[in-house]
Design goal:
Length: 250
Amino acid sequence: MSGHSKWHSIKHKKAKEDAKRGNIFGKLSKSITIAAREGGGGDPENNFMLSNAIAKAKEYNMPMDNIDRAIKRGTGEIEGEKFETIMYEGYGPGGTAIMVEVMTENKNRTAADIRNLFSKHNGNLGETGCVGWLFERKGIILVDRAEVKDEESFMLDIIDSGAEDIEEDGDIFEIKVDTSEFMNVRKKLEENKIKIKSAEVSYIPKSTVEVSKKDAEKVLKIINLLDDHDDVQNVYSNVEISDEILQEVG
């Protein structure tokens, strides 16, 4: 197993913790606003970006009033900050690659913050494209094994609906899907009444870098600090952390 499931499970767990503190709603609102503005309008039926952003917001029980306001800010029906999406790329401890997706109304301030976080925590912010080639954009859906009654039927069904691959990691099924088929697979799971643990369109590494315990601690620290920044929507890395080390430092 490549370790993607572990990584997405870590992200999902942290997002759930952030949701309890209310920290994630601001990020979800930005994502919905950008999707409505750049993805093709305020109708999720005709806007894949928006449909996915709304589905993710619902995962974290974001109130519909918040979702509606975010859509209206994106379509211009109500006033709001003019956010833009920027991807920063750099290097982390242990030779790892890190990509940071931000949504900001002040790119100069955000760029300085991101550069500072990299430099203070054993990292180095690089030029655009320096590590992007190490990743590919795919849909990643996680499902608990307990949700699946017939595994063979489940796998055939999901592959038929458009999934590229299904991997197993302990109690988790990780479904990888092309972005064009993401919503089809998601809908198939919902139709089959299979609860989704996590679903997102993400940058996943084509290959990973396994790190020592010392570097694992450093990588997780810089990733968590970046992820906690208000303007940061997502952090992606090609770090590979063994189960044994993850239990000690995770």
